[in-house]
């Protein structure tokens, strides 16, 4: 964790901020290792203080041996009062807080406890930006989550029949991932048969998979807090002509994009690699969502690969892990989406997902 704290401290120094109060659980876990549901981390130039309650003090000591732990007791020693104590001890006149992860009520409570002597300064994205580039430990964990996901998909694929319902298929995939070593699913598994697949984020229901129609499966395992994300579109029986046409467009759009990903490429230009190809094929209006997103301690995190109007123009950097998931969705017919996770490398990118694709 030390190098992560060091990178955050450098970012704080650059902005002239003496301390950051970390309240987002994923950011707190990233910097301290502590995975409990309740906690705050205060990081200064030379201190890291973790505040949590009695449910978690033992776990915090195990998971975050490198930081000092202070136990919050409500109502006797509520967190805002403990923070005010720490600010006085450490001589802090300003504390940055995570504006995107602090409610108005929490902010009011902190302001009242800190009083006029300590200024609360809103900050955004400081830890999230660090998390975009994965270190060796994170990459190893992500590779495990991805391998479990790929293996579960491959094993269950052989057992699906036209009579299997979406919900049954989703459960079979979940069981396979759990048995394979996942601590949880990364998100509710999507299995969307036929017209249901026209909604990119359909939920699995009672519809049988059927034959000759597209079935979108979007799934991922979670391992040690890290999320995998995989989409395959399959068909049972013989696909129709439209399936063959659209599948080839999405597959080729994804392959072209993957061939073009490299450090320095602005995120919105990565999106355009797929979007322009799909638009040239006549289906631009049917690819509504962004090309991809980072994965890690959250299922959706930076970088955000989207159109320039909505996405980031920040360049890709080595160490980023992002999804590449173009799709085409036709109301009344269904959808085609193919999603792989890739690692941006010095020379381009490495495809991490290995689940099989259709060979049509
Ligand atoms: Zn997905
Ligand atoms: Zn995704």
Secondary-structure blueprint:
Elements: H1 2-14, E1 19-22, H2 25-32, E2 40-44, E3 48-53, H3 57-63, E4 68-72, H4 79-90, E5 94-98, H5 104-114, E6 119-123, H6 126-131, H7 136-157, H8 166-179, E7 184-185, E8 190-193, E9 215-219, E10 221-223, E11 226-227, E12 230-234, H9 241-260, H10 267-280, E13 292-294, E14 301-305, E15 321-324, E16 327-330, E17 334-337, E18 340-344, E19 349-351
Parallel strand pairs: 1-5, 3-4, 5-6
Antiparallel strand pairs: 1-2, 2-3, 7-10, 8-9, 9-12, 10-11, 13-14, 15-18, 16-17, 18-19
Helix pairs in contact: 4-5, 7-8, 9-10
The structure holds zinc ion (ZN) (2 copies).
Global structural class: alpha+beta
Strand content: 15-25%
Oligomer: single chain
Taken from the alpha-carbon principal axes, the silhouette is: elongated
- Amino- and carboxy-terminal Cα gap: 46 Å
In short:
This protein has helices at about 1-15, 25-30, 55-65, 80-90, 105-115, 125-130, 135-155, 165-180, 240-260, 265-280; strands spanning about 20, 40-45, 50-55, 70, 95-100, 120-125, 185, 190-195, 215-220, 220-225, 225, 230-235, 290-295, 300-305, 320-325, 325-330, 335, 340-345, 350.
Question: Explain this structure to me?
Answer:
With 360 residues, the chain is α+β, with helices and mostly antiparallel strands. It has helices spanning 2-14, 25-32, 57-63, 79-90, 104-114, 126-131, 136-157, 166-179, 241-260, 267-280; strands at 19-22, 40-44, 48-53, 68-72, 94-98, 119-123, 184-185, 190-193, 215-219, 221-223, 226-227, 230-234, 292-294, 301-305, 321-324, 327-330, 334-337, 340-344, 349-351. The strands form six sheets. The chain has a six-stranded mixed β-sheet, sandwiched between helices. The protein has a three-stranded antiparallel β-sheet with strand order 7-10-11. The protein has a three-stranded antiparallel β-sheet with strand order 8-9-12, covered by helices on one side. The N and C termini lie far apart (46 Å). Residues 218, 229, 231, 339 line the site of one zinc ion. One zinc ion binds next to loops.
